[in-house]
Amino acid sequence: MDGCRSNSSSASRNSRSRSDAQKMKYVCVTGGVVSGLGKGITISSIGRLLKQSGLRVTSIKIDPYLNTDAGTMSPFEHGEVFVLDDGGEVDLDLGNYERFLSLTLGKDHNITTGKVYNEVILRERRGDYLGKTVQVVPHVTNEIQDWIERVAVLPVDGSQEAPEICLVEVGGTVGDIESSVFLEALRQFQFRVGRENFCLIFVSLVPVLGSVGEQKTKPTQHGVKELRSVGLSPDVIICRSSNRVELSTREKISVFCHCPPSHVLSVHDVSNIYHVPIILAEQNLHGILRDHLKLERIMTPEPDLVRWTELATSVDIFEEQVKIAIVGKYTGLSDSYLSVLKALKHASIAAKRALEICWVEASDLESETQKTEEEKHAAAWKVIEEVDGIVVPGGFGSRGVEGKVLTVEYARRTGRPILGVCLGMQVMVIEHCRNVLGLRTATSQEFAEQGKEQAEGAKEGDREEETYAVVFMPEINPAVMGGTMRLGARPTDVLLRDRQQKPTLAGQLYKQRDEVWERHRHRYEVNPELLGRLEEAGLRFVGKDKTGARMEIVELDREKHPFFLGTQYHPEFQSRPLEPSPPFLGLILAASGQLREYLRANGAN
Ligand code: GLN
């Protein structure tokens, strides 16, 4: 959507002289009442609206927990760990920002309590505080403000220019003990940067109760009261609700919450998230922010939402469906695979198909283990048999791996389009070793090591000698003691033609680019010792790192299988609504019978 910037916006930008240099403008957003309001989407939409009004936007997410990053947090509890170019393992909301606002953020754009305290303690040890007693106020609160100011100016849209607007989301809900230090920092911050450079938005819930569907304002009133008790007053209140929030409701909120009625906006449920910037524009949020933050000189009079509106409406009208199974181990919680879901969604938009996701718990597919009940087992296989395509996503640990191996075997034998990501690709290699090379005990060193721990005490010789199809190949991180994970963006050399000079699937999907940068998060890799035999058996390694030792992309010849592709990296992290990730696009096109035509149209022979 970057190309959407209107002519009038560039005209206004060109007419701006250097001396016009604006102060950074901050739009801070807090939420009240309950979590899970869709605060991230609301904030991303505010950013998109400002971006379409010609402004350079960045964003910072504050997470009031003590972990220094999201890397060690369970996807069960916290949703997926999002990975950034610089290797930052961060909250999934940063993924929303990157996707919605076409940004490339860094690890410092995610502030946590742990990170801030870590910094303060390091400073104290270095003697930076000159013998003073180090306290939450002012030392921690100053550190938070310094951090925001330092990170806000970092270029994030590929332009090398500092942003003009910084969105700051405070995670959690107002009133939590955890977030109070951040709210205090923001209270001070409004004076540090000046009121005309600071706008506070409160996102709240307006529940609808009773048979007449009364919109209740009390939770919002209490949320704002809580906010005002810490010295912050909202400039704008955004009400999340199932239906459009009526004028009378908004007027009531206005009276009780010390905010003009025109600044109380409705973000009601819509058919897809791309409508949210549009409904905010309809309620003149851009005008409110322009006046409050004195942005008239650098903002276009109206946002250019033409392509965005096309996107939002097109998503609603696809008639033909594409059904994709995600075979994972956290399938009860879709947030655990959020970026995979988004990448599938973006690819389906490009393929003009309505996406239906079928979640399959990998362990339900296992038969030998007797772990699952008959019914669940049968139901899981019925789904696999009925879908148009399959994704085996990334993961850690051995639970469900046998189910994934069976899925890959089924897809390989039946010609069902399948994409394996990270662990998914490793499973593709394990399956080939077992069922094509006949190495029945093939596994990953990761599971074998886990197994050894569990079987501690078992007699020597009880276990069959295993073949490691996937081995531990750490990448030492000198910055982190003990850091062995290969993390962040790395280059992959893509083989464009195979030995017979036929174009490779990966080369075609990446449009003949022979080097691609994608994001990684893993410790294990395909065992280099088995490469020759696997290649001989037809599995092609068509993407490698610069040393040639790490296998990055694996595929089967399209004459053997319509779409069988695995990537050691996670292509989902760089997918964008209008720029789908090539491997995901390939899967959806293959699953909807359009891949051959697409490849032909893109110059493949
Ligand atoms: N557990 C595997 C590894 O560490 C795969 C990781 C992943 O899928 N992200 O290599």
Automatic annotation (TrEMBL):
EC nos: 6.3.4.2
InterPro entries tied to this protein: Class_I_gatase-like, CTP_synthase, CTP_synthase_N, GATASE, GATase1_CTP_Synthase, P-loop_NTPase
Membrane-crossing segments per the record: none
Any one GO MF annotation of this record: ATP binding
Domain Glutamine amidotransferase: 334-588
Listed GO biological process terms: 'de novo' CTP biosynthetic process; pyrimidine nucleobase biosynthetic process
Enzyme type, top EC level: ligase
Catalytic reaction(s) noted: UTP + L-glutamine + ATP + H2O = CTP + L-glutamate + ADP + phosphate + 2 H(+)
Domain CTP synthase N-terminal positions: 25-295
Keywords: ATP-binding, Glutamine amidotransferase, Ligase, Nucleotide-binding, Pyrimidine biosynthesis
Pfam families: CTP_synth_N (PF06418), GATase (PF00117)
Pathway linked to the protein: Pyrimidine metabolism; CTP biosynthesis via de novo pathway; CTP from UDP: step 2/2
CDD domains linked: CTPS_N, GATase1_CTP_Synthase
Keyword ATP-binding part of the UniProt annotation: yes
Task of the protein: Catalyzes the ATP-dependent amination of UTP to CTP with either L-glutamine or ammonia as the source of nitrogen.
Family: Belongs to the CTP synthase family.
Protein name: CTP synthase
